[in-house]
Amino acid sequence: MVRTRWLVGSLVVVACGGNNAKPPDQPDPDVDQDLDGDGVVGKLDCDDHDPNVYPGAPELCDFKPNSCGTAPSEAGTAAFFPKTGKPRDVTAMLAAGTMAAPAAVDLGAEAGTLNLCAGTFFVSLSSSAPSLTIRGTGAKTTILSGGKVLRVLTMVPDGAVLDVAGVAFQDGIDDDGGAIAGDGTLTLANTAFVGNKADAVAPSGWGGAVLWIGVATVHDSTFDGNAAATAGGALGVQGALTLRDSTFSNNISTAGGGVAAINGAVSIESSDLHGNRALLEGGAIFLQDATSTLRNLSMISNSASVSDQTSSAFGGAVALVSGRATIEDCTLRSGRASTGGGGLFLTGSDATVRRAHIEDNESLHFNGINPSVFSGFGAGIEVVDSRLRVEDSTIAQNQGRWGFGIFVEHGTGSTSVDVHVVNTTFSNNANILGEARSAELEYWRANSMQSFALSGPVSFHCDNIGCASGE
């Protein structure tokens, strides 16, 4: 260690250092050096840790003033920031599109971040990169539109990672995934999807707004007025889905007017699904071969029907097919199914329902002017060859023709039924036609029927033989 003495008047100053010792004339690295390599030393640079910010720098869509001081507006601009190398202004490419002819923009194979400043861009983007991040100024201010002509964004590689926040996707159209389609890992936050469409016939026609194969996480987002020909009017996921704090309204598909998810673990929480429609199954949500948790959901005025004149539509709010589900603290209200399950329909599934409000749902359709005998089953819940446990719930004011609270059906063959209802209140469920037959709970097997009139908090159990009071 070097010890140096300076005599200042009668004061002796001892400086201890080594490799860190700095002679008095050495430049201060925080003031006299250019730490970010932009050609401007620190004492003159307003941000010496960002090479894109310095006096006189050209404005770039990075959500900050680049030239120090008051910057011109970044509205209508876009920039791509690769993981390595310098950013590129891509405004001209994205702004070249019109509603009638969106710009086809290939973002290339470089991983990086696409920044979109406030404005509307008519584009059809594609990326061959292993990962892409897109950031906008907010779903109300940054809009990507396919102009009702093209899909908005395609992730080309299998196993891609896509992370999007603060952007609205509008009027995209394709066979699948009208706004976004890809395979891999998807994250959507603070996004909006409006008026997108997947219009091909099955097995295509998935995901009116988004078709994702793999793992999808969606939160704080809205989906309104999207349509899919086959499944997932707004969101179609083939794999694992985590969805929370989001809103689905006025979306339509054959299965899953709002959401369709198959073959994965599914968690849907703290969201509103209102006014969605399925032509066949699951007005709000359709789940198949999935292990699911639905928690704290408001599902109001969803439907599974084409019209009063059509048949074969199930699960006004939720349809579960060949899977497992836990449904907790949810409201299924004012749903409608033309055949069965105005609130909830399950077939070949295993479900637990806790603290649910299944209220004011309907189930019925007509053949011409006459009510069809092949409809009106389970206005609240229809159970077909499934296991169901309902606890501490309310089933009230539902209207159907057969089992207008719960209808339990045991088919033929090796299938089984196991239904437990515990401490659940039945109230004011009724025959929708005012007929003096049928009841709140009905059990059907091989053309034989059991009917039970229920009221207040009750418990009962149904199995392959029939139903009896008590658990």
Distance between the termini: 84 Å
What can be said about the biggest beta sheet?
35 strands, mixed
Mean pLDDT across residues? 87
What is the number of domains? 1
The best one-word shape is: elongated
Classification by helices and strands: mainly beta
In helices, the fraction of residues equals: under 10%
Number of strand elements: 49
Strand content: over 45%
Unreliable sequence segments: 1-23, 34-45
Q: Brief description of this entry?
A:
This protein is mainly β and 471 residues long.
Question: What does this protein look like?
Answer:
This protein has 471 residues and is mainly β. The protein has one domain. It contains two helices and 49 strands. Strand 1 and strand 2 form a beta hairpin. The N terminus is likely disordered.
Question: What is the element layout, followed by pairings?
Answer:
Layout: E1 2-8, E2 11-17, H1 29-32, E3 78-82, E4 88-89, H2 91-95, E5 103-106, E6 112-116, E7 119-127, E8 131-136, E9 142-145, E10 153-155, E11 160-165, E12 168-170, E13 173-174, E14 180-189, E15 192-194, E16 197-198, E17 210-219, E18 222-224, E19 227-228, E20 235-244, E21 247-249, E22 252-255, E23 259-262, E24 265-274, E25 277-281, E26 285-288, E27 291-300, E28 303-304, E29 318-321, E30 324-328, E31 331-333, E32 336-337, E33 344-347, E34 350-354, E35 357-359, E36 362-363, E37 366-367, E38 370-371, E39 381-384, E40 387-391, E41 394-396, E42 399-400, E43 406-410, E44 418-427, E45 430-431, E46 441-445, E47 448-452, E48 456-462, E49 467-469
Parallel strand pairs: 5-7, 6-8, 7-9, 7-10, 8-11, 9-12, 10-14, 11-14, 12-15, 13-16, 14-17, 15-18, 16-19, 17-20, 18-21, 20-23, 20-24, 21-24, 22-25, 23-26, 24-27, 25-28, 26-29, 27-30, 27-31, 28-32, 29-33, 30-34, 31-35, 32-36, 33-39, 34-40, 35-41, 39-43, 40-44, 41-44, 42-45, 43-46
Antiparallel strand pairs: 1-2, 3-4, 3-6, 37-38, 44-48, 46-47, 48-49
